[in-house]
Design goal:
The chain has 430 residues and is an alpha+beta fold. Helix content is 50%, strand content 14%. It contains 16 helices and twelve strands. Strands 1, 3, 4, 5, 7 and 8 form a six-stranded antiparallel β-sheet that branches. A four-stranded antiparallel β-sheet has the order 2-10-9-6. Strand 4 and strand 5 form a beta hairpin. The longest helix is centred in the first third of the chain and has 25 residues, at 2-26. The protein starts with a helix and ends in a 9-residue tail after the last helix.
């Protein structure tokens, strides 16, 4: 028995050493890709057409659909990822014979190599045909790489949803700078996808679900929720943070109470589908509770949505992703049929993100409760938006700001952040 245990320990150590050595061997000193995210997202408005296609695919889920993806659309989405996580760089090249994806990921400074470089080649074919995947100097067969990725995704979700997803793709056709995915009817796949637990799972998630359910029930019974005229978000935040303050006994408990309160607000005055991030929280499930009238910030429904959506997304993501989502949405709106780039909307996004960050940080959660409890004034958590440009179509945006990350653009972003930073909830006394 002892000899067997010793053999297994040695085998485990050798496996770890081999895996570590293989990983280090793949690192390189130079990136495979060197792209500017500002240039990539300059075509972000082209993604709106792709979004409409995806919406139609879901609506017409009982029939086979074709989804056309252009090289510009793909690279705009890659640019979005890069703005959310600047260690990542990527590029796609779509041609009639094959399509290639190039990725570089920058690691912390080390003497071995600073970049993990990946190249993958996708072929036009029935189903999904991966020609090869290269990780640094190591080349892997496409079949092995795809099956490994599918197995890992299935294991992570405790399902076979990744296998089902691959089976949904009937055919991939290519021509220069365009790819067409033929997708089989999605009806059953979407049902199966919906059946997978949305949260990560565990005791903490269950505690958050129960607390969110409590706040959602309380909010739905507020008197302002029964009114038929638009109500300020501040009229919900004041009383809900009063409840959170009553239920908090420490820095850590205050952070969790605030997190649940924000999620309940996002579900009630934002969109009921945010409940998918938490679980079954509706007080009279399956009936969805909602206010009798729209909720506003600065007398605008859209600003309430930008603020509370961003706060909820911040709770379940890195801050960089939340910022990139808001910025990318505004870039898409520069098209002729869009509302135009709005720095006011962006201010609402940024303020929602920082609101959630301060409210759910144990070091500041109690202070935020003290400021917001019973406070019905928007100025406590929402910045001054006077003088911020909005409604900018692409030509006007480029005339005034050239592109994102230009000096003038950065000045405007700095102006917005300065106004948010000046809010009382973000200025806890030392």
């Amino acid at each position: 028995m002892f000899s067997l245990l010793k053999y297994l320990v040695i085998l485990l150590l050798v496996t770890i050493l081999l895996a570590t050595g293989l990983f280090l061997f793949t690192l390189e000193s130079q990136p495979l890709v060197d792209t500017s995210s500002a240039t990539q997202v300059d075509q972000a408005e082209s993604v709106k057409a792709l979004m409409h296609q995806l919406q139609d695919t879901v609506k017409l889920r009982s029939t086979k659909q074709d989804i056309t993806i252009s090289e510009d659309q793909f690279n705009s989405l890659v640019g979005f990822v890069q703005r959310a996580h600047n260690q990542f760089q990527g590029k796609a090249v779509i041609r009639s014979q094959s399509s290639k994806i190039f990725v570089s990921y920058q690691l912390p400074n080390n003497p071995i190599g600073q970049f993990m470089n990946v190249e993958a080649s996708l072929l036009p074919a029935a189903g999904v045909a991966v020609e090869y995947v290269k990780i640094g100097p190591i080349s892997i067969s496409g079949d092995f790489a795809l099956s490994s990725l599918v197995t890992l995704a299935n294991w992570y979700t405790s399902s076979d949803i990744a296998s089902q997803f691959i089976e949904q793709i009937d055919n991939i056709a290519m021509r220069d700078k365009h790819m067409v995915l033929s997708v089989l009817p999605l009806q059953q796949f979407l049902k199966n996808l919906n059946a997978i637990k949305q949260g990560v799972g565990g005791k903490k998630d269950e505690e958050l679900r129960l607390k969110t359910a409590f706040y959602l029930k309380e909010i739905s019974e507020f008197s302002i929720a029964k009114r038929y005229t638009p109500q300020s978000l501040a009229k919900y935040i004041g009383p809900v943070f009063s409840l959170a303050k009553e239920r908090s006994s420490s820095d850590e408990s205050a952070a969790l109470e605030n997190k649940a309160a924000i999620m309940a607000l996002a579900i009630y005055v934002g969109h009921h589908r945010f409940a998918n991030l938490v679980g079954d929280v509706q007080p009279n499930s399956p009936r969805i509770v909602s206010p009798n009238s729209r909720t506003v910030l600065k007398s605008r429904v859209d600003l309430n949505q930008h603020f509370i959506f961003s706060a909820a997304i911040k709770i379940f993501s890195e801050q960089g992703i939340s910022v990139a989502i808001g910025e990318f949405k505004e870039l898409m709106d520069r098209s002729h049929d869009g509302s135009g780039y709005s720095f006011i909307d962006l201010a609402a996004d940024f303020s929602g993100i920082k609101f959630a960050k301060s409210a759910t940080n144990p070091d500041s959660a109690l202070y935020v409760q003290d400021i917001l409890a019973g406070n019905l004034d928007e100025k406590a958590f929402f910045p001054n938006i006077t003088g911020l440009p909005e409604g900018l179509k692409k030509a006007e945006f480029e005339r005034r700001f050239i592109r994102v990350d230009s000096p003038k653009y950065k000045q405007m972003i700095a102006k917005i952040n300065a106004r948010i930073d000046a809010l009382q909830i973000h200025n806890q006394p030392n």
